[in-house]
Amino acid sequence: MASSANPSSPSPFSPDPSIKAEKAALRKCISARLRALDDTHVTAEAKRLFPRLLELEAVKRSECLSLYLSMPSKEVPTFPILLTVLMEGGKQEGDASSTGGEARRKKKVYVPKVIGPASADMVMLPLSSPQDIASFPLSKWGIPEPVLPPSPLPSLPPLDLVIVPGVAFDANCNRLGHGKGYYDCFLSRLQASHAREGRQRPYTVGLALDEQIVESVPLDAFDLPIDAVVTPSKFFLR
Length: 238
Description:
Elements: H1 17-35, H2 39-55, H3 57-61, E1 64-67, H4 79-88, E2 90-92, E3 103-105, E4 108-114, E5 122-127, E6 161-164, E7 168-169, E8 175-176, H5 182-196, E9 203-207, E10 228-230, E11 235-237
Parallel strand pairs: 1-4, 1-6, 6-9, 9-10
Antiparallel strand pairs: 2-3, 4-5, 7-8, 10-11
């Protein structure tokens, strides 16, 4: 049985003031860099990135994944990935089919829903069709979000793959988020839940334009690296 999501519980994260200032400065720098990019450049680079993401073995093997819905602010767009995953599924090694020895099995996909201001206030809700996104209301950040179902709040899903957003990443797979702590807290809860239930830790992947890769991301003591970062031209694996 899936564990409780436990939103709105006290946050264990207490940032160091000097690191917090470094992170704010880096967010400002990268945001300015991204604003200077032409939309056609972002679209073209995203098209280069998607096939590279789908080459990752963890993505091919995933059966239950979460994927962020992108902001309208030069963030790597994720709708084409949703189309591929939901409409085509994932290649499963060893499955036979009449069209070449590989069958496709539909993956379960979850997308985030922010339900409050605290870092613990993000849950994952199932997405059955990419067409559903058109009916989602927009958050204050311009992100489409599913409508929260009636109580009780949803449990933590048995995710084996989490595709995360970020402002900046480095070659060691360190990630700088948007500063709210939603994903840091969610991943901490999810990993603890998986450990209690004897599941393998979910694989975490960040998507980035090459312009979002920096020499070093400033880190607090509680910041944990992700497993991989995919850009249009590079893989970074931990």
